[in-house]
Design a protein that fits this description.
This protein is an alpha+beta fold and about 475 residues long. The protein folds into 2 domains: about 280 residues, Beta-lactamase; about 110 residues, Lipocalin. Helix 2 packs parallel to helix 6, helix 2 packs across helix 7 and helix 2 packs antiparallel against helix 11. Helix content is about 25%, strand content about 30%. About 45% of the residues are buried.
């Protein structure tokens, strides 16, 4: 059905949003009615985007993890409402009440009270078990079960809980329980595997709107894979969506019980934080187990978005019409407004609704998530206290700040000195450390999830010896700076 999208208009808007490549697919009543690729999956090599082109589906991966959990609940290996401590006695959270009472349901609903702590992951230097034990040192920013706040880190932990009760890795669970039964043969769970494929999309980054694109190497998610580690394509994701539309049945075989599927899809906690406001789009959003419920022009939608290094995606269902759609673009944010212009246009054309030019609407839409002084195009966030105090100096010779430091929650980092300048090595980042005032420095470009942060780094010293003994970094805007002790 080629009337679902005006290709000339689509390509024009891709140029406006500076999107190299896009794949779109629609399935209805078990039949693929539309799938196509537009633009380029690799600019330098002039390679076309196709419906089989692989890319990181980012946070749409969470729905795979919640489905694995549902299958384990069906087998009696987990309970949605049983405290996690009953399955993993060594599990702890900083809040002792939350630690003793938190359930998998709480985690799936994002209501643990934990702040984002996105600088924790990915981390190739530790195992998922080590990652889990760091949670006892993570500061909450809200009372347990008081509200829902989106949390990648907790979804990463959910995957390890599945590992603990099943004796299988998260990768094996997803492969055995989802990918193989559904015939999702192109889907893979590491960046390395994706890059071994002959049809995968290079991710791109645009630092400022309407600026030049640069290649953005994808992160290997490792401990964070249960939150954002799936790489897939339109042709495979339409199988995934039809499985959900069939409430757990694929090719006549039930893989997850109807009861558990209802649990996954049911909107249970309020996450009504609209990015844009239009009369046709409901401001109410209820989050289930990695699925968002809302309405568009009175039509029930169940969906999830994904944003990760170099990729943006949307998986979406119209359950009352047995219809699903998936789309992926090989560009780092901001892309979601464009993708929803595609979503709403397809729905309008599919349902024969009065025409709205959603591309023009989204192009003109101005929102602080994508523009403004604090967040530039949804990429850069400044956590520095401004301005600094002029005329101040450091308390020690610059070379004395060099060394290795460690935190129980965030792991190890290194400060090095080169020709009178300091540098931070943390995970995969090597960043300059610029003096701000006194013993506080500025670090710009620290990557956390899909944002680049400018953060304060403050050195501390022992009051008796006078030696530098640690540092603090403001890694999350909602909690205290993290303390790193000198090794």
């Amino acid at each position: 059905m080629n009337t679902l999208l005006n290709e000339d208009q689509l390509k024009k808007d891709m140029k406006f949003w500076n999107i190299p490549g896009l794949s779109v697919g629609v399935i209805r009543d078990g039949e693929i009615i539309f799938q196509n690729g537009y633009g380029l999956r690799n600019i330098a090599s002039d390679l076309p985007m196709t419906h089989d082109t692989l890319g990181g589906i980012a946070s749409c991966s969470k729905s795979f993890t919640s489905a694995v959990i549902a299958s384990l609940v069906d087998e009696g290996k987990l309970g949605f409402d049983t405290p996690v401590m009953e399955y993993i006695p060594g599990f702890r959270l900083m809040d002792p009440v939350a630690g003793s009472e938190v359930t998998v349901r709480d985690m799936l609903y994002h209501r643990t009270g934990l702040a984002n702590h996105d600088a924790m992951w990915p981390d190739p230097s530790i195992t998922r078990d080590e990652f889990m034990h760091r949670f006892r040192y993570l500061q909450p920013d809200r009372p347990f079960r008081s509200s829902a706040q989106y949390n990648n880190t907790v979804y990463s932990l959910i995957g390890h809980i599945a590992e603990c009760v099943s004796g299988q890795s998260w990768e094996s669970l997803v492969t055995d329980r989802i990918l193989k039964p559904l015939g999702m043969s192109r889907t893979c769970l590491t960046v390395a595997d994706m890059r071994h494929d002959s049809d995968w999309a290079t991710g791109y980054l645009e630092h400022k709107r309407h600026g030049s694109l640069e290649e953005m190497p994808a992160w290997e998610m490792n401990v964070g894979s249960p939150a954002a580690g799936v790489n897939s394509c339109v042709s495979d994701m339409l199988k995934w969506l039809q499985f959900h539309l069939n409430n757990g049945i694929y090719n006549g075989t039930r893989l997850i019980s109807e009861k558990s599927m209802r649990e996954l899809h049911h909107g249970a906690v309020d996450m009504s934080t609209p990015i844009w406001e239009f009369p046709e789009v409901s401001s109410a959003k209820d989050y289930g187990m990695a699925w968002v419920n809302t309405t568009y022009r009175g039509i029930h939608l169940i969906y999830h978005c994904g944003e990760i290094e170099g990729y943006s995606s949307v998986e979406l269902m119209l359950p009352d019409y047995n219809t699903g759609m998936f789309m992926i673009a090989n560009k780092h944010k901001p892309v979601i407004p464009f993708l929803f212009a595609v979503v709403y246009t397809i729905i309008d054309n599919l349902m024969g609704l009065p025409e709205i030019n959603w591309f023009e609407r989204m192009d003109e839409y101005d929102h602080p998530r994508y523009k403004g002084d604090l967040v530039y195009d949804g990429l850069e966030i400044n956590l520095m206290p401004e301005p600094g105090i002029k005329g101040t100096s450091i308390s020690h010779p610059i070379s004395e700040y060099s060394g290795e430091y460690t935190s129980k929650s965030y792991g190890a980092l290194k400060i090095s000195e080169n020709v009178g300048h300091l540098f931070l090595d943390y995970k995969e980042w090597h960043l300059p450390v610029e003096h701000f005032h006194y013993d506080t420095f500025k670090v710009k470009g620290l990557k956390e999830d899909t944002y680049f942060y400018t953060i304060p780094l403050t050195f501390t010293y022992d009051e008796i010896s006078g030696h530098i003994d640690g540092l603090t970094m403001k890694l999350d805007k909602d909690v205290d700076p993290v303390k790193f002790f000198r090794i």
